[in-house]
Amino acid sequence: MRRIKNSVGIWAFQEMPTRFLAAGYHPEYRGVDMVKRTEMVLEGLGDLVDGFEYHYPGEINEKNANKIVAALGREHDVYCIASGLHTDSRHAKGAFTNPDPAVRARAVALSKAAVDLASDLGAHLIIWPGIEGYNYPFQCDYREVWTWFLDGLGAVIDHAAKKGVSVFLEHKNSEPAMKVLMRNIGMTLWVI
């Protein structure tokens, strides 16, 4: 029987701040750079994990990617790069759905850069649009927001197709936006 490959998000091994404990539950990870964090996780998990997932550009980027790959060695790889748009406060009103066209363009450019790095590393790309949505009924023009979302997503996916990078879409019901546009499997299938 063929063994199924697995991977884990490196973000699971951090301070784990929450809205209830901003300092986090694991202060021992504070200030640890991503290469060292990767080495610590490898030491603890070893053969249990095949690959790792990193957010772009905060956890993996053009400056540290080669060092991370070296730390992973031959036994492990960067399985996925996740678009880390939700970690940037400039995207508080959305990234692909931001009312400011300059912010939307920047979100597409950052996502395309994540695709380029994924291509260089032989990795996949995950898009989790948790900030693409709204908090209150009638807060936004739904048609306009959906158009922006699909246009931005489409531009990134077209770029990924040219680079040979598979894109995974991850849905979530809410948080950070209370009503995420792509909030369930049905909406995800509609987006596809």
Structural class: alpha/beta
- The fraction of residues in strands falls at 5-15%
SSE pattern, N- to C-terminal: EHEHEHEEHEEH
Rounded average pLDDT: 94
What does the overall shape look like?
globular
Quaternary structure type: single chain
Q: Return the CATH architecture of the largest domain.
A: Alpha-Beta Barrel
Tell me the strand order in the biggest sheet.
1-2-3-4-6
Description of the structure:
There is one protein chain. It is globular and about 50 Å long. The chain has a 5-stranded parallel beta sheet with strand order 1-2-3-4-6. It has helices at 34-45, 65-72, 101-121, 142-163, 185-191, and strands spanning 7-9, 51-56, 77-83, 124-127, 133-134, 167-169, 179-180. It has 5 helices and 7 strands. The chain has 192 residues and is α/β, with parallel strands linked by helices. α1 packs parallel to α2 (65-72) and α3 packs parallel to α4. The chain has 2 domains: 1-83, no CATH class; 84-192, Divalent-metal-dependent TIM barrel enzymes (TIM Barrel).
